[in-house]
Amino acid sequence: MDDLIYLDNGATTFPKPKEVYDFMIDFYRKNGVNPGRSGFDKAIETEEVVHGTRKMLTEFFNGENPNYLTFSYNASDSLNMIIQGMAEKGDHVITTNLEHNSVLRPLYHKMDAGEIELTYIPFNKKGYVNPDDFKKAFKKNTKLVIMNHGSNIIGTVQPIEEVGKLCRDAGIYFAVDASQTAGIIEIDIKKMNIDLLAFTGHKCLMGPTGIGGSYVGENVPIKGTRFGGTGVRSAYPFHLEEFPYRMECGTLNVLGVAGLFAGQKWIREQGIKKIHAQEIALWDKLRLGLQNIDGVTTYCADDTKNQNAVLSFNVNGWEAGDVGTMLDVDYNIASRTGLQCAPLVHRYIGTEKIHGTVRFSLGPFSTDDHINKAIEAVGEIASMKN
User: CA distances (Å), 221 to each of 49, 173, 216, 341, 359, in order?
Assistant: First the structure.
């Protein structure tokens, strides 16, 4: 397995930096206790890492109050809390056809229950939404706009600053799913007019699975949807309204938070712009290489502007799943095939009926040699049908 060519970083980055593994193991051996519950030294030290991670991520996203940076299981978990806590009966919500099921399903459940009215904004042939379409869709009862920052299928990075400005001017709350961008594309909550940001730790933030979170603006009226222990004011019968407790209950994933802490330090040392530039240069080489192979179709891969290192393709005459199996078994290349949890994207680009695409997604440890071998492998597979 040491020679695995891992091109499934859109699902989770792998491997993690050595510094992340080392810090997590050392931290958990020494400080694997419950933070914020007791006053002994190790509990205090653990809480210092937890709050320190809140501070680092708040600074990373240009937020203001670290207490409003809260932790969850992953982005899907945070998006559920955002949607359940913001969208109320009678509200109109706007989203896009680019969304992951982490957004689509919670919204659909609320719409199906007759609680909300829902509008989907389309994207163009290059894979981008038009901010003017949001403005045209605004209604008197529009409460929330929620959309992703970067597509997990076609890799396009959306104009969220422009959409956020329209929402701010109209008094509509703006939520962003940063699952594919947090840690690789700069996010400025203030500049981008973001009211609620959901992120996951196991992708570009270089943390482990099972940890994610959100940042909520101080004046955003989100309702808590989970209730339980906080270690604070235990005699009070209701769950606490103040942050971070409003969005957290029970024991945190301390090991996951420690991984985020170490991942943040690594990203800062490397430089987010440097990491992205390296990935997108390799992505462009991959794009050009695949597009030069007869019988290969790429989707919305145009240029490197406003793009993440995610590329979907199909080999004419082959099922995407079969191509993925051959890449795995014959070439030791890991990819992702199918609908990738974003069915509306596939419906629009015409791949829904052919069971989706093959997705290559690069990470900070992808190399030039990996790309060369991936192009060669796809070329050999394509030649079998020609």
Answer: 28, 10, 9, 29, 38
Cβ atoms within 10 A of the Cβ of 174, count? 26
Total residue count of the chain as it appears in this document: 386
Under 8 Å between Cβ of 72 and 212: yes
Dihedral angle sign, alpha carbons of residues 170, 77, 101, 361: positive
Q: Distance (Å, rounded) from C-alpha 283 to C-alpha 274? A: 14
The pairing of strands 333-334 and 5-6 is: parallel
Q: Report d(CA 105, CA 109) in Å as an integer.
A: 6
Rounded CA-CA distance 159/120 in Å is: 16
What is the value of pTM for the model shown? 0.96
CA dihedral 339, 342, 343, 346 (to 10 degrees): -70
Domains of the chain in sequence order? 5-16+271-383 (3.90.1150.10), 18-269 (3.40.640.10)
pLDDT tens for each residue of 133-185:
999 999 999 999 999 999 999 999 999 999 999 999 999 999 999 999 999 99
Contact 132, 163 (CB under 8 A): no
3-state SS, 173-193, equals EEEEECCCCECCECCCCCCCC
Cα separation values, 83 from 79, 92, 104, 217, 303, Å: 6, 12, 10, 15, 33
Give whole-number Cα distances, 337 to 6, 47, 386, in Å: 14, 40, 22
